[in-house]
C-alpha cells in the first residue's frame, strides 16, 4: 500500500463521512421539528373540538395542515434512512481506503453513495417546496453544508475511480503468485489486476490452450465490460478441437456484448523465440506466467515497459495469422498431404491471407 496515496484519498473520504453525518443530523432535526408542529396541531384541534372554541391564530396553520405535516414527517423518515445509508457507505469507503480493497468495490460504494445523495436532495426539495420558511432557519445551515460536501466529494470520487488515469494510478507494479494458494491467487487476479485494466486487452502467450482459456475467463469475467477488444496470440501447438469450439462460443458471447475477440497464431519462428508472456491494455503492460498455470506457478506478475511491450506485440501481431485463416490453411495443407490437391489456394500467389 502506498502510504502517501492512502493519506490523500483518506481526506476526501473523511469529508464525505462528515457531510453524511451532517445529513443524518439534519434529518433528525427536521423529523423532530415537524413532529412538534404536528403534535401542536393535533392538540389544538382536539382542544378546539372539545371546548368548541376558536383556534388561536398561532395554532391555526399547524391545525389546518395536519395532513401535509404528516406527509412531511414520513418524507423526513425516509430521508433519515437514506442518510443512514450514506453514512454507512462513506464509512466503508474510509475504512477500506480504496487500495486495500478493489477498484470494483470502490466503484460500487461510490456509485451507491452518489445515487443516494441524489435521492436525499430530491427528498429535501419535496420538503422545501412545502416548508420553505422553515428551511430558512439558521439551524438548517448544517444541512446545506452537508449536501454541498457530499455532492462535491461524490463527483470527485466518481472521477477518481472511473477515469483511465485513475485505473493507471491504481495499477500495481507486481503481483506475487504463491503456488500453495491457487484459489487465492485466482481471486487476487480477479479482484486486483483485471478490474484496473481497460480498453484494448492484449495477451501474448504461446502456451495459451483450453486450460488457459478457462483461467482467462475466470479472472476476467467480472471485468469483461472494461474492454472493447481482446486479442490473444498463441501457437499452433496449443490448438485442438476443444480449444477451437470454446473460442468460437466465447467469441459469440462477447460479440453480443459489443466486445471483439480475436485469436491469432504466431508464426513458427516467432513462437519458438517468444519465451516472455505479455499482458497489456491501453496503458500498462505486465510480464506474466503461462495462463494455463497462472494461479499455480511460483512467479511474479511484473509491470514492464509499455512502449517496448507494445512494439513487440505489434511485430508479432503483424506476422501472425488469424485463427479462422489458420484453420483453413491447415485443412488445405492436410488435403495436399493426402494428395487431394490445393485447388482452393489463391491462384495468383498460392498464399492464405492473414
Verbal overview:
The protein has 354 residues and is an alpha+beta fold. Helix content is 62%, strand content 11%. It contains twelve helices and eight strands. The chain has helices at 3-51, 57-64, 66-96, 103-130, 141-162, 164-170, 182-193, 210-220, 241-256, 268-273, 306-319, 323-337, and strands spanning 174-176, 199-204, 227-234, 260-265, 277-280, 285-288, 300-304, 321-322. Strand 2 (199-204), helix 8 (210-220) and strand 3 (227-234) form a beta-alpha-beta unit. Helix 1 (3-51) packs antiparallel against helix 3 (66-96). The chain is elongated and about 110 Å long. The two termini are 45 Å apart.
Keywords:
alpha+beta, 8-stranded mixed β-sheet, Endonuclease, Chain A, 62% helix, Ferritin, single chain, 354 residues
In short:
This protein has helices at residues 3-51, 57-64, 66-96, 103-130, 141-162, 164-170, 182-193, 210-220, 241-256, 268-273, 306-319, 323-337; strands at residues 174-176, 199-204, 227-234, 260-265, 277-280, 285-288, 300-304, 321-322. It is of the alpha+beta class and 354 residues long.
Query: CATH topology of the largest domain, anyone?
Result: Ferritin
CATH architecture of the largest domain: Up-down Bundle
The largest beta-sheet arranges its strands as 1-7-6-5-2-3-4-8
Structural class: alpha+beta
Rg, alpha carbons? 31 Å
Largest sheet features: 8 strands, mixed
Mean pLDDT level: 79
Uncertain segments are 58-64, 98-103, 340-345
Distance between the termini: 45 Å
Query: SSE string, helix = H, strand = E?
Result: HHHHHHEHEHEHEHEEEHEH
Relative helix content: 55-70%
Bin the strand percentage.
Answer: 5-15%
CATH level-1 class of the largest domain: Mainly Alpha
Estimate nothing, just give the exact number of structural domains.
Answer: 2
Multimeric status of the protein = single chain
Number of helices: 12
Label the overall shape.
Answer: elongated
Q: What is the β-strand count?
A: 8
Amino acid at each position: 500500500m502506498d502510504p502517501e496515496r492512502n493519506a490523500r484519498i483518506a481526506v476526501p473520504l473523511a469529508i464525505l463521512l462528515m457531510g453524511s453525518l451532517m445529513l443524518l443530523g439534519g434529518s433528525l432535526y427536521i423529523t423532530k421539528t415537524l413532529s412538534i408542529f404536528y403534535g401542536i396541531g393535533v392538540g389544538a384541534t382536539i382542544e378546539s373540538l372539545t371546548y368548541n372554541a376558536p383556534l388561536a391564530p398561532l395554532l391555526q396553520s399547524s391545525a389546518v395542515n395536519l395532513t401535509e405535516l404528516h406527509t412531511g414527517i414520513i418524507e423526513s423518515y425516509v430521508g433519515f434512512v437514506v442518510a443512514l445509508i450514506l453514512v454507512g457507505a462513506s464509512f466503508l469507503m474510509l475504512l477500506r481506503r480504496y487500495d486495500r480493497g478493489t477498484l470494483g468495490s470502490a466503484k460500487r460504494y461510490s456509485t451507491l453513495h452518489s445515487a443516494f445523495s441524489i435521492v436525499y436532495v430530491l427528498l429535501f426539495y419535496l420538503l422545501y417546496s412545502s416548508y420553505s420558511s422553515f428551511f430558512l432557519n439558521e439551524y438548517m445551515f448544517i444541512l446545506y453544508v452537508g449536501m454541498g460536501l457530499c455532492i462535491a466529494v461524490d463527483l470527485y470520487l466518481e472521477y477518481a475511480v472511473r477515469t483511465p488515469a485513475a485505473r493507471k494510478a491504481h495499477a500495481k507494479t507486481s503481483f506475487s503468485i504463491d503456488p500453495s494458494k491457487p484459489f487465492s491467487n485466482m481471486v487476487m487476479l480477479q479482484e486486483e489486476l483485471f478490474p484496473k485494466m481497460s480498453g484494448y486487452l492484449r495477451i501474448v502467450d504461446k502456451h495459451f490452450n483450453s486450460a488457459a482459456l478457462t483461467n482467462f475467463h475466470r479472472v476476467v469475467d467480472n471485468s469483461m465490460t472494461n474492454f472493447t477488444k481482446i486479442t490473444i496470440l498463441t501457437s499452433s501447438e496449443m490448438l485442438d478441437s476443444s480449444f477451437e469450439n470454446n473460442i468460437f462460443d466465447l467469441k459469440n458471447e462477447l460479440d453480443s456484448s459489443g466486445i471483439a475477440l480475436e485469436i491469432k497464431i504466431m508464426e513458427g519462428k516467432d513462437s519458438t523465440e517468444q519465451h516472455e508472456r505479455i499482458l497489456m491494455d491501453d496503458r500498462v503492460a505486465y510480464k506474466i506466467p503461462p495462463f494455463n498455470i497462472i494461479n499455480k506457478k511460483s512467479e511474479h506478475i511484473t509491470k514492464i515497459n509499455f512502449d517496448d511491450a507494445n512494439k513487440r506485440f505489434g511485430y508479432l501481431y503483424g506476422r501472425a495469422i488469424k485463427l479462422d485463416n489458420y484453420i483453413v490453411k491447415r485443412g488445405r495443407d492436410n488435403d495436399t498431404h493426402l494428395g487431394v490437391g490445393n485447388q482452393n489456394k489463391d491462384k495468383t500467389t498460392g498464399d492464405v491471407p492473414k
